[in-house]
Write a structure and sequence with these properties.
The chain has 2 domains: about 25-105, no CATH class; about 160-500, no CATH class. The protein is built from 7 helices and 19 strands. It has helices spanning about 50-55, 60-70, 75-85, 90-105, 110-120, 250, 355-360; strands at about 5-15, 25-30, 35-40, 160-165, 170-185, 210, 215-225, 230-240, 260-275, 280-290, 315-330, 335-345, 370-380, 390-405, 425-440, 445-455, 475-480, 490-495, 495-500. β11 and β12 form a beta hairpin. The radius of gyration is 28 Å and the shape is elongated.
Length: about 500
């Protein structure tokens, strides 16, 4: 909120734990029968063998968590054997031998072993009652938000709530939220604070009261089991009701309570494991942008993250993205992960012509007739080796896009039509880079980013300012709207020559 704002947030009902590539938590059944929470990111603390396999890069932390959540020790044994077979680390014959050993009863129940050892040592087993729960030796500082993790998706890593006959596995998630907001001064009339509040506030500073429930968010994670054992196919769909209101009479009459559902995420992803150190992936759909979305502040308020226009840039965008992950290993589990994406070249134009923007969407990026380009490079390592502390990351990202504003022949100012008989256009580029970091330790987690670039309104940068016309040196100027109504184009004379302002 702004300095003058007071916000009270009511979280009405947590529908399900928000699953996915952020900091998800799985409930794992320990060998003693007690339930222990195991985060998908930190290394497993229960089984020394799993810790060893994770430390050597044979298993990811997510895969280890899935093994721990598989139920009884025998079921955990089967899941681990299946993972090793899928990775090509053991043959089918070795896998079958391990399964035979389990079916022959060679795997002894951990509880029975513990009970028998107590009797053989002359100690009477405890008579019922809850067994003691092992507490972690280190409680790590808050884990950073990672919307774009570099770990590959694990085969059967999704613990589904629904299984379809086709083999698809589905896990829904979401939350309900109601926000009660009072702003001591909000001259723009928004229910969230915006920069550039230099406006006429009227006689009393324009205080406002808002109450909204449209932040409801729903989503689902998907997995389809591919016949190829080293290939993983996953997907996600997520929406909320932070969209606009439709411009039709039967809804406008009640639009204060009837906002539209809008898509946040909608993608499918293919992961391929080439060996125990090298994996690649391709993603198709709308996801978080590789540029500048790797670090976000850990805050309760999800609308604009409390910093829109003032540095916390981020965005979701339609894209085709590909990359790979290479596990360098070492004592600190070094990994590198370059990614590259072609994206829709969006610029976040101010909707001056609302009717056209609702009808056609944003045009100037598409009118450039070329895609936007984005990419990032991630270096990940274990900064703090204490159990439960997630790895650190250093990220460099970039973006490039081009916009073109078109002026039709009919809209060219009369005094310039002889020079531009067919109309004209003017283009400009958006180029930017960011340097980001997340440094978690058991004591404190440091997260931050630096960015620099041009025309970043789409990413909520530059205090939401858009493009402008540089009229320096032009005389006898005349302004006309672009074909989409989102910009003005300035014609003038430069040293007597008809020109268009860049």
């Amino acid at each position: 909120m702004s300095v003058k704002s007071i916000g009270v947030l009511f979280v009405c009902l947590l529908l399900m734990a928000q699953a996915g590539r952020m900091q998800t938590v799985a409930i794992a059944q320990s060998p003693t029968g007690s339930k222990a929470q195991s985060a998908t990111v930190p290394a497993p603390t229960g089984d020394p063998l799993l810790r060893l396999l994770v430390s050597k890069g044979v298993l990811t932390t997510e895969e280890a968590a899935v093994v721990l959540s598989s139920g009884t020790p025998a079921q955990q044994h089967d899941r681990l054997a299946t993972l090793l077979k899928d990775k090509g680390l053991i043959s089918k014959a070795e896998f079958d031998a391990l399964k035979t050993a389990v079916s022959d009863g060679n795997t002894v129940d951990a509880n029975a072993t513990s009970s028998n050892s107590n009797v053989s040592a002359g100690r009477a087993p405890s008579a019922g009652g809850p067994k003691p729960v092992a507490h972690p030796s280190v409680i790590a500082a808050v884990a950073p938000i990672r919307l774009l993790p570099i770990e590959p998706q694990a085969r059967e890593g999704l613990i589904p709530d629904l299984k379809l006959g086709s083999g698809a596995r589905i896990k829904p998630y979401g939350f309900f939220k109601t926000s009660l907001i009072h702003d001591s001064s909000s001259p723009l009339g928004n229910d969230f604070p915006l920069p550039l509040l230099a406006a006429d506030t009227g006689p009393s500073g324009s205080p406002e009261f808002h109450l909204k429930a449209r932040a409801l968010r729903l989503g689902a994670n998907f997995e389809w089991l591919d016949p190829a054992p080293k290939t993983v196919i996953t997907g996600r769909f997520e929406l909320d009701f932070e969209g606009d209101f439709t411009r039709v009479s039967n809804r406008n009459i009640s639009s204060i309570r009837s906002s539209q559902a809008s898509v946040r995420l909608a993608w499918a992803r293919i992961d391929r494991r080439f060996n125990d150190k090298f994996t690649g992936f391709a993603l198709f759909g709308q996801d978080w942008a590789p540029f500048a979305s790797s670090t976000l502040p850990n805050m309760i308020e999800s609308t604009n993250f409390g910093g829109i226009g003032f540095g916390a840039i981020y965005q979701r965008v339609p894209q085709v993205r590909a990359g790979f992950n290479y596990n360098l290993g070492g004592s600190r589990s070094w990994k590198i992960a370059p990614e590259f994406a072609i994206v829709f070249p969006a610029f976040g134009n101010v909707p001056a012509n609302v009717a056209d923007q609702l009808g056609y969407g944003e045009r100037q990026g598409a009118d450039s007739s070329r895609p936007g380009l984005q990419g990032r490079f991630v270096l990940q390592w274990q900064l703090d080796k204490a159990a439960g502390v997630v790895p650190a990351e250093f990220i460099v990202s970039f973006e490039h896009a081009r916009r073109t504003a078109i002026v039709t022949a009919a809209n060219v100012p009369a005094q310039f039509r002889s020079a531009f008989p067919a109309g004209s256009d003017v283009s400009s580029d958006s180029n930017a880079y960011s340097v980001e970091m997340q440094l978690p330790t058991r004591f404190v987690t440091l997260s931050g980013k630096y960015y620099s670039g041009s025309d970043l309104r789409f990413f909520f940068g530059g205090q939401l300012l858009s493009n402008f016309n540089d009229t320096a040196g032009l005389t006898s100027t005349a302004s006309v709207p672009s074909i989409d109504g989102a910009s003005t184009v300035v014609f003038g004379l430069l040293n007597g020559v008809p020109s268009i302002a860049p």
